[in-house]
Amino acid sequence: MKLFFANKKINKATVAVATIYLLGLCGLYAQIQYSDAEALLKLAENNTAFYETDFSGRYTVVQEKPGEGKNLTEAIMYRRDKTEKWTILVTGPASEKGKGYLQYDGNIWFFDPADRRFTFTSAQDKFQNTNANNSDFAPQHYSRDYDIESAVETKLGAFDCVLFSLVAKVDNVDYPKIKLWVTKNDGLVRKKEDYSLSGQLLRTTAIPSYQIIKTPQRNYAVPVKMLISDNLRGKKIGDKVQYERTQITISNVSFSPVDDIVYTKPYLEMMSSK
Question: What is the DSSP letter of 130?
Answer without folding.
Answer: S
